[in-house]
Design a protein that fits this description.
This protein has a single domain, classed as Glutaredoxin, CATH 3.40.30. A hairpin with a 2-residue loop joins β10 and β11. It is about 35% helix and about 30% strand. It has about 140 residues and is an alpha+beta fold. Pfam families: Thioredoxin. InterPro entries: Thioredoxin-like_sf, Thioredoxin_domain, Thioredoxin_H-type-like. This is Thioredoxin domain-containing protein.
Length: about 140
């Protein structure tokens, strides 16, 4: 788990990492994960989830965070397994103020929303816990 150190220091490996990398597509063959890079995209996804009675699963991460990279393929797999849910990622450095509003103090942080309200939260790259929480949210 990486603490909220937007100074580009990964607390997991204690290395200074370059965050100038280009945005990567999160669209994999295993499912659709939508990158939220602007507040307008966030609002679209929240509205889509509300209007269609879907759970919104939000992965707050950072490009330099090693645990976030560990969680990424599992997150994509879950997006494929649960098409009744909407999966998005938010880079905490791209949308730092927004991430702070959601009280993201460490990466990765995964938040589950129903009707725009937080119903569950997972801090850290506990893949088995993410799978459990996602399955439980899908049953609602």
């Amino acid at each position: 788990m990486c603490l909220q150190l937007w100074s580009r220091i990964c607390c997991c490996c204690s290395n200074i990492n370059n965050t100038n990398g280009q945005a990567r597509s999160k669209h994999g063959s295993k499912g659709m994960v939508y990158p939220v890079t602007r507040i307008e995209i966030w609002e679209e996804k929240v509205t889509e989830a509300k209007n269609n009675g879907k759970i919104l699963v939000v992965n707050f991460n950072a490009s330099w965070c090693v645990p976030c990279k560990k969680l990424e393929p599992i997150f994509r797999e879950l997006a494929s397994r649960y098409p009744s849910m909407i999966f998005v990622t938010i880079d905490v450095e791209e949308l730092a103020e927004f991430s702070n509003e959601w009280n993201v103090e460490a990466t990765p942080t995964v938040v589950f929303l129903k009707d725009g309200r937080q119903m569950d939260k997972l801090v850290g790259a506990e893949t088995s816990e993410l799978q459990k929480k996602t399955a439980a949210a899908a049953d609602l």
